[in-house]
Every structure is written in C-alpha cells, then in structure tokens.
Amino acid sequence: MVLGTTFVLVFVPASAAVGILFALTQWYLVSYVTVGKSRVSNNGYMQVDEDGIDDASVNAKCAEIQAAISEGSEAFLTTMYTYLAIFMGLFSVIIFVFLASVGGFSFDRQPCDYDQTKSCPSSIASAFFSTVAFILGALTSTLSGYLGMKIATYANARTTLEARKGVGKAFAIAFRSGAVMGFLLAANGLLVLFLTILVFKLYFGDDWVGLYEAITGYGLGGSSVALFGRVGGGIYTKAADVGADLVGKVEQNIPEDDPRNPAVIADNVGDNVGDIAGMGADLFGSFAESTCAALVVSSISSFGNDKNFVAMCFPLLISSAGILVCLLTTLVATDIMSVKGVKEIEPTLKRQLVISTVLMTVAIFLISWFGLPETFTINVVGHEAKVVKNWHIFFCVGSGLWAGLIIGFVTEYFTSNAYTPVQDVADSCRTGAATNIIFGLALGYKSVIVPVFAIAVAIYLSFSLAAMYGIAVAALGMLSTLATGLAIDAYGPISDNAGGIAEMAGMSHEVRERTDALTAAGTRRQRSGRWFMVQGFAIGSAALVSLALFGAYVSRAGIASVDVIQPKEFVGLIVGAMLPYWFSAMTMKSVGKAALAMVEEVRRQFRTIPGLMEGTTKPDYKRCVKISTDASLKEMIPPGALVMLTPLIVGTLFGVETLAGLLAGALVSGVQIAISASNTGGAWDNAKKYIEAGASEHAKSLGPKGSDAHKAAVIGDTVGDPLKDTSGPSLNILIKLMAVESLVFAPFFAANGGWLFRG
User: Fold this and answer.
1) How far, in Å, CA of 30 to CA of 16, rounded?
2) Residue 391 vs residue 246, higher pLDDT
3) 83-109, pLDDT tens digit by residue?
4) Is 620 exposed, middle or buried (0-12, 13-18, 19+ CB in 10 A)?
5) CB atoms < 10 A from the CB of 37, how many?
6) What's the chain's average pLDDT?
7) Phi, psi values for residue 377, rounded to 5°
8) Mean pLDDT across the stretch 527-551?
9) CA–CA separation, 174 vs 759, rounded Å?
10) Which residue ranges make up each domain of the chain?
C-alpha cells in the first residue's frame, strides 16, 4: 500500500468538488440559450421560422410551455416532499427508540460486540448517530431528485430552441443538462457521506464497527425517499401517459404531444418527476447502500483491527475515481467527438458507456494496487476468515463493472426496435392486441436469462475471492460510472420534453424532425433502447447491492448460516418471494385507478369544450395535472408502507432467521420480475414507435398511424407503461430498502426479535 491518510483526506473531497464545479459549468453553458427572448437580425427586423412563424411568438410559446411543465413538476415534488418530511420525522423516532432500547436506553458505554475487552458508545449514542445519518441520507436523496427535476425543466425548451440550429446543437444542450444531474448527484452523495464519516469519527474514534453501523442509516434514508419518489412519480407519469395515449391517439387519432390533448402537459411533467427525479433518487440510494454495505463488512476485517484509514475508505476512493473518469468521458461527447449529424447520436451515447467502463477498469486497478494492503483478511461469521490479496479486489470490482455493461447492452437488444425481438413484437400487432401482449410477455421472460447469468458470474467470482466484501465492492464497481449513466438517463426525458414542446409550440416540421432524432437510433422516431439500458443497469446494481446488504445483515445479526431447510428460514423465503408480486399488484392497480380518472377527464374535455378538436380553444391542462398529482400522492402510501413495515414486523415477531429468509426470497424473486417487467414494457413501447416511424418497408407495411396494427401497438404500450415505469423500477428499491432497513435494525432484532417463537 502506497497511498496515505492525507491523500484520502484530499482526494475524496477534491473529486467531489471537481464534480460539482463541472456540473455547474455545464449548467452555465446551457444557460447561454435564452428562453422567452426573441432574436433580432442585423437589419433590425424580427427573424422568421421555416413555417413563417416569427421568432418572438415561438420563443414566447416555448417559454409558456416550459413554465407550465416546471410549475407542475415543482408543485408535485413540493407536495410529495411535504408528506415525506412527516414520514422522516416519524421514522426517525422509530429508529432512535428501537436502537436505543437495545441497551436499555442507557448512557453508559458498553462492551463491544466484536471485542468484549473494549468499550463502545452507549446505545443512546449509537441510536442518535444512526438517526442523524438517516436524516442526512433522506435530505441528500431529496436534494438529488429536486435538482434533477430543476435542470430537466430548465433545459427542455432550450433543447427545442437549439434544434433550429441543427441536431448537434440540440444534442449538446440535452446531454450537458443530463450531465449536470449526473455529476451533482454523484458528487453531492459522496461529499455528504465522507463529511459525515469524518464528523462521526470525532466521537467514535477507532471504533470503526460502531461508526459504520451508524452510517448505514445514510443508505436507509436515501432509499426511503427513493421508494416514494419512484412509486409516486411512476403513478403520476403513467396516469397521464395512458390518458394521453388511449384517448388522444386511439380515440381522437391525434399525435401524442398535440396541444389539443388535455393530458399533454401532465405527460411532460411526469417525465421529469418519474424518469428523472425518481431515477436520480433510486441510483443515489444504490450508491449509498452499496457503500454502506462495503464499509460495514470492512469494519470487521483486518482493516478495522489495524486501524487502516486508507483501506477503510477504499469504497469512497472507487466512487471518487469514478467521478473523474466520467468527467473525461463526458468531454468526449460534448467537446472531443461532438455530434454533427443524426447518425452520430446513438454511437456517441453507446461510446459513453464503453469509454467510461474501460477507463474505470484502469482506475480500479491503480486504486486496488496502491490503496489496499498486499494481503488482508475478511472475517466471515461462523466460518474461517478469508485471506485476500489486493489484486483479488480488482477482479471483484471489475466483475461488477463489466457485468453492468453486459446487462445494459442485453437490455438494449431486447428493447430497441433496431433488433429482431422488438420487430417481432411489432409484427405480432397484425393480428391484434392479444398476440402483441403474448409476444411482449414472452420477450420479457426471455430477456431475464443473460442478465441473471451475468449477475451470477459476478457474484460467484466476487464471493470466491473476497466473501461478502467482494460482492459489496462489485456493486460499487457497477455504480462507479454513476455520473455517466445518470447523464444518459436524464438526456432521454429532456429530449422527449423537447419534442413535445416543439409540437405544442407549432414549430416547423424540420425542427420536430431534429427533436425526434435526439431519441432516435437512425432517422425519424426509430427509438433506441438506451433509456432501458440504464434501467437494466439500475436493476442489476440493485441485485448486487441487496446481496451485499444481506451479507452485512447476516454478519451483524450473528447468523452463522441461512439454512432454507429449517422451517423459520423457509417460511421467510417463500413469503419474501411473494412480496414483489404483492407490491407489483398494488402499484399497477394504483396506475390503473389514476389512469381511469385521467381517461374520463380527457374524454370529458373533448366532449364538452367547444372548439377543442378544431384547435380554437385551449384545454384545461391544470385539471389533468391535479388529477395525476392527487392520485399519485394518495396511491403511493400503501405500497410504501408494505415495504417499510414488513422487515420491522417480521424481525420483531419472527426473529433474525426468518427475516434472513424473507430478504433472500425477495431478492431472488424481485430481480427476475423487475427485469422482465421493464423489458416487456420497453419492447411494447418501441414496437409502437417502430410502426409510427415507418423507417423500413416492414414498418411501413404495419402502419401508418391509426391502422389496426398501430392501435394494437398502442394498447400494448399502454399495458406496458406501469410495468416499465412504475412496478419494474420500483422493485429494485424494494429489495434494496428491505435489506438496508434490516441491517439498520439488526441489533434490535438480534436482542429482542422473535417474540412469537419464544413461547
């Protein structure tokens, strides 16, 4: 090991600061495009757009639409965060009371679990610091989602206006805006976590076990907010989307983003609160949880015994290097090999993932070689300690990193209409919606195979080399390029909003072609699967994170082995495998109820507002926004309560062994359903886009818009909406959140759990 304590104290916060400054620089560059101000030519006359629309009216219309989307997004998040503030307060009390009760609410220091000859902080102190960490994690996750929403609503109209100059200019604005979200989230999460560790260490001193157990509250706070953000945002966006599609496209035969459609503003708002704020909070939760899992496992290794500060901060060094690698990768897309034409967009985005993975592999090798002892041991409860070499950790982290890339490309293959699977789904629409549904479900089930094998290989390799610590750092490896993944994810909804604004503002056909091209693999609206690549990446990382947290929980609860033949564990296993189905049923029904109200409202407006179809009267957009907001906030509570209360009830009433079985069952079942649901929904979505684009002879034979095949595709897409944007993405939070919650409450469950089996 070469790196010293001073290097860590400088490198980690410096990397975070560089990430924040880079994000602010990108934001500044985006701000150069003005909205609401007209351009005047040198001769003093107003410039005129291609369709004869003067520049002032275009700018004013774009500004008006952007303001409506921003207002709706901010109103929803503000209301949701108000509810979450109440939840955070109540759950903070639960954390403090449960953990403080382990030591009888004593202020006296107590013998350490890992070494009875040493004294550790009192139960009151441990409970207090865990509660503070929970609040900090929740606040950071809230900030991450809010900042993502703000930059997305700030950039959508600017992307539209830049599209008048060419597709390259529009791409630069959209991607820079996505990078703002990616780097702010990754850097803020890392900086807050590192500073929290340093502050906590002032009290805990060399008690790394107690320190890192308290830090797990940070991951719990992040994932708690992410759950409600994902579920609430997903219900919001899909209620609006279903209303816009079923009534607008199928019944009224008008475009998706037609300004006559009453649900169009709510649909665009949904992109920001669901796909951006929700995804941002989700991946922040994954980062926080994987880091916490690695820290907890490392604290009971020789790192903790030797008081090796550099090795104990190894997970933070990975994330720090990831920020710098993603920064260099982003410059490739925006400055070094910038997009000039439509055909360069898709290769540029794919290149981002490949370049960041290759560069990160080199960075991981250097950090592992110079930041870890040549040989060290990882303690495994109930088993002999594992002797590990530093190059073993390189392969552990690398396996997670490359497994993530494989999952991403496999997801794209099954969700992009450039490949056979989605084209087969589109072709099945010839005979109606029923065959479309059958083909889409089959595709989703099949798409699970390769990702699960990739995850299995990463798990086997990592566990063989470094036990549960290997799995924890493998999850960190998959998340090490988080900033790039989030930039690509945010780029999608920003581009989609830009297309909607171009349509609603009545901009020229050429401008709308360019905004459509931002979401294209080729020309027109042949939409790629890259958005779903990030979704697959999120689910894959959730699997590794959950397993790492499971290992940390087993260690903290003192469980030597999880034997599924025993009745306690088997009961937990089978119930845990059922939970993702229960959760999915709740979220899908919630979308259905909200969508039903939206469909009825859109139909009412078309039926009762004179001149709406003729375009002489504006629809009541605010009414549709209110329906989505009210429904999503009301419907997010039951599934959220299911996830948050289940570990508390099972651990308290049935004990640590049953809870271990429950976590294992939820992990195995949840990953399969999440991948299948997301890919099925993605395939139906892109099958519809394939028919609408008509970019090939095969696609033309299925269209045009309004044909029977197209209507069948729209129905399939509508069925898939809650799968790919609500239930599927939320499931990865379910498996992570239950695991990290169990880890936080493990001391209480170990001391007081299993009431029903005591007596």
Assistant:
1) 21
2) 391
3) 889 988 999 999 999 999 887 787 777
4) middle
5) 11
6) 84
7) -120, 145
8) 71
9) 62
10) 5-32+62-752
Helix (H) / strand (E) containing 222? helix 208-243
Contact indicator for 697, 744 with CB cutoff of 8 Å: no
Q: Is the pLDDT of residue 54 over 60?
A: no
Contact 530, 349 (CB under 8 A): yes
CA distances from 433 to 42, 422, 429, 440, 715 (A): 56, 15, 6, 10, 6
Are 711 and 614 in contact by the 8 Å Cβ rule? The answer is no
Give pLDDT tens digits for 168-212.
888 888 888 889 988 998 899 999 999 999 999 898 887 888 888
CA 124 – CA 103 distance, rounded (Å): 8
How many Å apart are CA 89 and CA 135, to the nearest integer?
Answer: 9
Q: Which ranges of 614-694 does DSSP label H, i.e. alpha helix?
A: 621-635, 637-654, 656-693
Residue 758, pLDDT above cutoff 70? no
Identify whether the C-beta of residue 566 lies closer than 8 Å to the C-beta of residue 486.
no
Q: Which two tokens stand for residue 321?
A: 């290097």
Residue 122: Cβ within 10 Å count: 18
Higher-pLDDT residue of 556 and 450 is 450
DSSP conformation class of 49: -
Residue closest to 375 by CA, chosen among 465, 468, 295: 465
Question: How is residue 2 annotated by DSSP?
Answer: -
Radius of gyration of the chain, Cα coordinates, nearest whole angstrom: 26
Angle of helix 123-162 versus helix 167-204 axis, rounded to 10: 170
| Burial letters 243-254, b for 16+ CB under 10 A, else e | bbbbbbbeebeb
What are the C-alpha distances in Å from 412 to residues 240, 503, 533? 26, 27, 5
CA 528 to chain centre: 19
Strand boundaries in 559-639, DSSP class E: none
Q: What are phi and psi of 65, to 5 degrees?
A: -70, -45
Helix/strand/coil for 378: strand
194, 12 contact by CB (below 8 A): yes
Type of residue numbered 332: V
d(CA 177, CA 25): 10
Count of residues making up the chain: 759
The Cβ-side half-sphere exposure at 742, using a 13 Å CA radius, reads: 36
What is the pLDDT at residue 17? 95
CA–CA dist 468, 285 (Å, integer): 19
**604 in helix, strand or coil?**
helix
pLDDT at site 195? 94
Q: Are 733 and 542 in contact (CB under 8 A)?
A: yes
In the block, which residue shows the tokens 């930041």? 371
Q: pLDDT band for position 533 (50/70/90)? A: low
Ranges of H-type helices in 46-164:
55-101, 123-162
Backbone angles phi, psi at 300, to 5 degrees: -100, 15
Q: At residue 274, what is the residue type?
A: G
pTM beyond 0.85: yes
Question: E strands within 494-652?
Answer: none
Compute φ and ψ for 386, nearest 5 degrees: -95, 125
Tokens found for residue 271: 């992109």
Asked whether 558 and 657 are in contact (CB, 8 A), the reply is no
Mean pLDDT score, 684-707:
85
- Of 185-199, 299-313, 426-440, 509-523, which gets the smallest average pLDDT? 509-523
Distance of alpha carbon 273 from alpha carbon 232, whole angstroms: 8
- Taking a C-beta distance cutoff of 8 angstroms, is the pair 155, 34 a contact? no
Q: Are 503 and 386 in contact (CB under 8 A)?
A: no
- Does an H or E element contain 540, and which? helix 530-557
**% of the chain with per-residue pLDDT over 70:** 92
3-class SS of residue 122:
coil
Cis peptide before 704 (omega within 30 of 0): yes
